[in-house]
Amino acid sequence: MTVRQGLSHSSKPILLLRLPNRILLGKCLKQNQRQKNTLRTNTGTLLSVAVFYLSEVAAAAYFLFGQMQALNPIQPRFTKLFNRQLLKPLNLRAFSSSPDDYTNQSRGGLPRFFSEELPASKGGVVRVQGDEFRHMTKVLRLSTNARVELFNGKGSLVEGCIERIDRTGLDFVALEDPTLVPPLSTQWHVFAAFGTLKGDRADWLVEKCTELGAHSVTPLLTERSPSISENRVDRLRRVILAATKQSQRLHEMILNPPAKIVGLLPLLAQSKLSFLAAAGAPPVVSVLTSSRKESSGLMIVGPEGDFTEKEVNMMMKAGASAVGLGPHRLRVETATMALLATLMLWSDSP
């Protein structure tokens, strides 16, 4: 850069750029413009992705609305929901057939942890150790006086704080008396032949049953799915506990021991509601419209390759109603989720 004395009356020097510096400045300006164009392009892409996902959510909501109309065409539950003001804050819970106190208690804002033992009353102290202790102190890094909630998986919930922490565990002190919340009014018992599923597909099935609100899951042993390993059962119990905490359930889903079809037959004879997923059967929606709601029911899903004809005849003779889940062949976990979600929505409809 060269400094020259200009012809101006001012005594200040005038700075003039040499030609190479002018070229460099032009390159910088062009690069800046390209960056701006790239930013606009990225912003447009992000907006396009956001619009795509919003359209997917809207399509799913429209499909769910249509299913509810099919289940109850006179006065669908979601009609009032769509007529509400969009900007009005909503406090909704999927499958909210439970009392209001369950909804309020299960949606607390404090971190929630599992403990088989809870304080009997306000001021009581219990010891928290093991995995929950490590989660509280190592993962969430909670310290003394941090407020948390403990639940026992049987409907009891208590709010308190961490009183003391040492190397082996922590002491939790209750700040109020424990609250006992009743279970959901509708209890669905799932019987699914998932013992031979590979990978984590069985974990996914049990996890989603927990999130949807099934009361219990029983591995069903059939001719084409004759066993389930004990190691897998232990793992499934851990999956259930994690899904219970994630979904904020206060009643832990029960994992029953494996059962054979012969042992299922007496339960079918006693149950007033029992549905068997079967190919070629009448659609589940049409069967539900002519069914009466009960406090509990059974749903049965077969293994890969389906039940044998003999097994189907045995269960239907015992009282199971065959229902269809569409024209396509579904995996065990897909059929279980489709049937359970439909039954939960039907139970929750007025």
UniProtKB/TrEMBL annotation:
EC top class, as a word: transferase
Gene Ontology MF terms: rRNA (uridine-N3-)-methyltransferase activity
Pfam family, one: Methyltrans_RNA
GO cellular component: cytoplasm
Membrane-spanning ranges: 44-65
Gene3D superfamilies according to UniProt: 3.40.1280.10
CDD domains on file: RsmE-like
InterPro entries referenced in this protein's UniProt entry, alphabetically: Alpha/beta_knot_MTases, PUA-like_sf, RsmE, RsmE_MTase_dom, RsmE_PUA-like, tRNA_m1G_MTases_N
Source taxon at top rank: Eukaryota
Keywords for this protein: Cytoplasm, Membrane, Methyltransferase, rRNA processing, S-adenosyl-L-methionine, Transferase, Transmembrane, Transmembrane helix
Family: Belongs to the RNA methyltransferase RsmE family.
Described function: Specifically methylates the N3 position of the uracil ring of uridine 1498 (m3U1498) in 16S rRNA. Acts on the fully assembled 30S ribosomal subunit.
Name the UniProt record assigns to this protein: 16S rRNA (uracil(1498)-N(3))-methyltransferase
